[in-house]
Amino acid sequence: MMFESDNPSGNKLVMDIAKEDGGNGIGFRPKAMMLASLAGCSGLDVIPILEKMKVEIDDFNIEVEGELTEEHPKFYHKVVVDYHFYGSDLNEAKINKAVKLSVDKYCGVMEMFRQFAEVKIATYFHNK
Questions:
Q1: How many CB atoms lie within 10 A of CB 94?
Q2: Can you list the alpha helix ranges (DSSP code H) found in the chain?
Q3: Which of 12, 26, 55, 83 is most buried, most CB within 10 Å of its CB?
Q4: pLDDT tens-digit profile of 46-75?
Q5: Three-class DSSP category at 25
Q6: Which residues have a Cβ under 8 Å from the Cβ of 84 and sit 6 or more positions away?
Q7: Contact 84, 62 (CB under 8 A)
Q8: Cα–Cα distance between 110 and 97 in angstroms, integer?
Q9: Residue 81 forms beta bridges with which residues?
Protein backbone atom coordinates (compact mmCIF):
# COMPACT_ATOMS: atom_id res chain seq x y z
CA MET A 1 0.00 0.00 0.00
CA MET A 2 3.00 2.30 -0.29
CA PHE A 3 3.82 3.99 -3.58
CA GLU A 4 6.78 6.08 -4.64
CA SER A 5 6.47 8.78 -7.25
CA ASP A 6 9.07 10.90 -8.94
CA ASN A 7 9.08 13.95 -11.16
CA PRO A 8 11.18 14.94 -14.19
CA SER A 9 13.78 16.46 -11.83
CA GLY A 10 14.27 13.06 -10.19
CA ASN A 11 12.79 14.07 -6.83
CA LYS A 12 10.82 11.36 -5.08
CA LEU A 13 7.98 11.24 -2.63
CA VAL A 14 6.18 8.44 -0.86
CA MET A 15 2.42 7.98 -0.73
CA ASP A 16 0.93 5.69 1.86
CA ILE A 17 -2.13 5.16 4.01
CA ALA A 18 -2.59 4.66 7.75
CA LYS A 19 -1.60 1.37 9.40
CA GLU A 20 -5.21 0.72 10.42
CA ASP A 21 -6.13 0.88 6.73
CA GLY A 22 -3.41 -1.55 5.65
CA GLY A 23 -0.54 0.84 4.99
CA ASN A 24 2.67 1.68 6.79
CA GLY A 25 1.70 5.21 7.76
CA ILE A 26 5.02 6.67 6.60
CA GLY A 27 4.08 8.63 3.49
CA PHE A 28 1.79 11.40 2.40
CA ARG A 29 -1.87 10.52 2.04
CA PRO A 30 -2.91 11.33 -1.55
CA LYS A 31 -5.71 13.71 -0.57
CA ALA A 32 -3.57 15.46 2.04
CA MET A 33 -0.93 15.91 -0.63
CA MET A 34 -3.50 17.81 -2.69
CA LEU A 35 -3.94 20.30 0.16
CA ALA A 36 -0.17 20.60 0.52
CA SER A 37 0.08 21.26 -3.23
CA LEU A 38 -2.47 24.03 -2.92
CA ALA A 39 -0.49 25.73 -0.14
CA GLY A 40 2.81 25.22 -1.94
CA CYS A 41 1.53 26.58 -5.25
CA SER A 42 0.14 29.73 -3.70
CA GLY A 43 3.13 30.25 -1.42
CA LEU A 44 5.46 30.00 -4.40
CA ASP A 45 3.47 32.84 -5.97
CA VAL A 46 3.16 35.08 -2.92
CA ILE A 47 6.83 35.20 -1.91
CA PRO A 48 8.22 36.42 -5.27
CA ILE A 49 5.36 38.92 -5.61
CA LEU A 50 6.19 40.34 -2.18
CA GLU A 51 9.88 40.47 -3.11
CA LYS A 52 9.06 42.45 -6.27
CA MET A 53 6.94 44.80 -4.15
CA LYS A 54 9.85 45.12 -1.70
CA VAL A 55 7.65 44.00 1.18
CA GLU A 56 9.54 42.61 4.13
CA ILE A 57 8.13 39.86 6.33
CA ASP A 58 9.77 37.78 9.03
CA ASP A 59 7.79 34.62 8.44
CA PHE A 60 4.88 33.30 6.43
CA ASN A 61 2.82 30.15 6.50
CA ILE A 62 -0.32 28.85 4.91
CA GLU A 63 -2.76 26.56 6.70
CA VAL A 64 -5.16 24.59 4.53
CA GLU A 65 -8.08 22.52 5.75
CA GLY A 66 -10.48 20.56 3.62
CA GLU A 67 -13.83 18.93 4.23
CA LEU A 68 -14.52 15.68 2.43
CA THR A 69 -17.87 14.58 1.08
CA GLU A 70 -19.63 11.79 2.98
CA GLU A 71 -20.17 9.54 -0.03
CA HIS A 72 -17.62 7.69 -2.14
CA PRO A 73 -15.68 8.74 -4.03
CA LYS A 74 -14.83 11.16 -1.23
CA PHE A 75 -13.41 14.48 -2.37
CA TYR A 76 -12.89 17.92 -0.90
CA HIS A 77 -16.02 19.98 -1.37
CA LYS A 78 -15.01 22.76 1.06
CA VAL A 79 -11.52 24.16 1.54
CA VAL A 80 -10.26 26.95 3.79
CA VAL A 81 -6.91 28.59 3.04
CA ASP A 82 -5.48 30.79 5.80
CA TYR A 83 -2.45 32.96 5.04
CA HIS A 84 -0.43 34.02 8.10
CA PHE A 85 2.16 36.79 7.87
CA TYR A 86 4.55 37.69 10.68
CA GLY A 87 6.73 40.75 11.05
CA SER A 88 7.08 44.33 12.19
CA ASP A 89 5.00 47.02 10.52
CA LEU A 90 3.51 44.65 7.92
CA ASN A 91 2.24 46.38 4.77
CA GLU A 92 -1.22 44.85 4.81
CA ALA A 93 -2.38 46.46 1.56
CA LYS A 94 0.52 45.06 -0.46
CA ILE A 95 0.35 41.68 1.24
CA ASN A 96 -3.38 41.46 0.49
CA LYS A 97 -2.64 42.36 -3.13
CA ALA A 98 0.00 39.61 -3.37
CA VAL A 99 -2.40 37.03 -1.94
CA LYS A 100 -5.18 38.18 -4.28
CA LEU A 101 -2.87 37.89 -7.31
CA SER A 102 -1.98 34.34 -6.35
CA VAL A 103 -5.57 33.33 -5.58
CA ASP A 104 -7.20 34.98 -8.59
CA LYS A 105 -4.54 34.91 -11.28
CA TYR A 106 -1.43 32.78 -10.83
CA CYS A 107 -2.06 29.66 -8.74
CA GLY A 108 -3.22 26.91 -11.08
CA VAL A 109 -3.81 24.50 -8.21
CA MET A 110 -6.18 27.04 -6.63
CA GLU A 111 -8.10 27.20 -9.90
CA MET A 112 -8.28 23.41 -10.05
CA PHE A 113 -9.72 23.30 -6.53
CA ARG A 114 -12.34 25.89 -7.46
CA GLN A 115 -13.63 23.47 -10.11
CA PHE A 116 -14.89 21.04 -7.45
CA ALA A 117 -14.80 22.82 -4.07
CA GLU A 118 -15.94 25.97 -2.34
CA VAL A 119 -12.67 27.72 -1.46
CA LYS A 120 -12.54 30.33 1.31
CA ILE A 121 -9.53 32.58 1.79
CA ALA A 122 -8.46 34.52 4.89
CA THR A 123 -5.34 36.57 5.60
CA TYR A 124 -3.96 37.14 9.11
CA PHE A 125 -1.34 39.66 10.15
CA HIS A 126 0.82 39.02 13.21
CA ASN A 127 2.65 42.28 13.89
CA LYS A 128 5.41 42.26 16.48
A1: 14
A2: 30-52, 92-101, 108-114
A3: 83
A4: 999 999 999 999 999 999 999 999 999 999
A5: coil
A6: 60, 61, 62, 63, 124, 126
A7: yes
A8: 16
A9: 64, 121
